[in-house]
Amino acid sequence: MKEKELIDKTEKIIEEYNSNTADDKTSFNIFTILREEDEEVMLHSRFIYELLNPRGSHLMKQKYLSLFLNVLENKAGTPLPHFLDEHLLTATVYRERFNIDLLIYLPNGYTMIIENKIYAYDQQSQLDRYFNTVVNQCRRDENKIFIVYLTLDGHEPTEQSKGKLKHDIYQISYASEIDHWLEMCCDESTKYPNLYETVMQYKRLVCQLSGKIDCEDGGMMSEIANLILMDKESLESAININGALNVAKSRVILQLFKALESEMRKAGYKKISSDEIELEAIDNYYNAKEIIWQRYLVKSYSGNYEFCFAFEIDDRLYYYFAFTTKGECEIIEKADIGKLHPQIYKKCLNAIRKAHNIENIKRAASGSLIWDYIYDSSGKDYNFKRFSENCIELYGNIYSEAKRICEELTPIIRRVESEL
């Protein structure tokens, strides 16, 4: 069938599915109520940490950790040594230690580094840096370190992330290894209803995120797949639609950045780079994982640097304050500014604290003095990597939403300016 007919029939399947699941009690999920479903640090790493921890509140001791190691050995081919259960009781699990998502000290001097990636980008030499930290600062034997790279689909880390690292990296996925592990955890928890239901709810979330939900049990995705495979023409139409999808999403982002620029210009803020964001650059965001940004001058200093405010999209839309080089607009590391111009750095930092009415800045990075997500009017962040529902709703509402965003953020910028 042609593209238009395929879209119409797909819409009918989705409408029917939504109406049938409105009363489905399994749609209640405590994790999606309390957190965004793809929040790596505060949801996924945190919950996986709790299950893996032999001293976790689940009171299953080393059982979940033992099952996890079995899955890694059997499904991911990780050449782990055999650990007796009583020895695993001595294992220590850390979360966000040295910025490592999960760090596990296993018996007999073995160590496991788990890097958890859902939609976030790989950082420069991230895995290489973590490995060297564990060897040099934690004094762990480099020959007994296992690096595990966890993603939704099990893809490889980028060369950017590996840096100079020559150590083996084991790739696992939420769709396969984590789902299988959670299934085994559920089997071990059937005697404890509260524990069982909690792990099962998390398993459902993992299936939904990784695209497994409905595919194996005749649900919505399975029905749409059957529609696509009805004949050769339908499959070809679906491929054509899929090929145009990223272009369509890129146009929404392009319109949003143009609208934000227009509102910022009205507010009196000048973009510090004259380069225009082209559709091709945004296409690269989906194809090559390039980050998209716009930076605006807050204050210029003598020398080769400026203080700026920026909009940026990695997986989500957020803003930050940072120092940049004049002309090239390259971010300058905070540590470098702090050493070269300590008084200016301290003044800008204090201005940000006063503008946000906070003493301790929790969301900051090596290049930004502060950053935070930009939320819609209902308090949800915009996730352009998975193109969350509010990103879809932007279409046809971009200029009014850009105005609302700038009306919320420009007073913060002005308060920062007044302190400089």
Descriptive key words:
420 residues, five-stranded antiparallel sheet, 16 helices, five-stranded mixed sheet, alpha+beta
Strand order of the largest sheet: 1-2-3-4-5
Q: How much helical structure, as a percent, in the residues?
A: 40-55%
- What best-fitting shape do the alpha-carbon axes yield? globular
- Written as H for each helix and E for each strand, in order along the chain, the element string is HHHHHEEEHEHEHHHHHEEEEHHEHH
Radius of gyration: 24 Å
How does this model look, in words?
This protein is of the alpha+beta class and 420 residues long. Helices cover 49% and strands 16% of the residues. It has 16 helices and ten strands. The strands form two sheets. The protein has a five-stranded mixed beta sheet, sandwiched between helices. Strands 6, 7, 8, 9 and 10 form a five-stranded antiparallel beta sheet that branches. The protein is globular.
Short recap of the structure:
By secondary structure, the chain is an alpha+beta fold. 49% of the residues lie in helices and 16% in strands.
Sequence-ordered SSE layout with sheet pairings:
Elements lengths: L2 H19 L8 H5 L5 H13 L10 H13 L9 H4 L3 E6 L2 E6 L5 E6 L9 H11 L8 E7 L7 H4 L6 E5 H15 L4 H18 L9 H9 L3 H35 L12 H9 L4 E10 L3 E9 L3 E9 L5 E2 L1 H7 L1 H15 L11 E6 L15 H6 L3 H22 L1
Parallel strand pairs: 3-4, 4-5
Antiparallel strand pairs: 1-2, 2-3, 6-7, 7-8, 8-9, 8-10
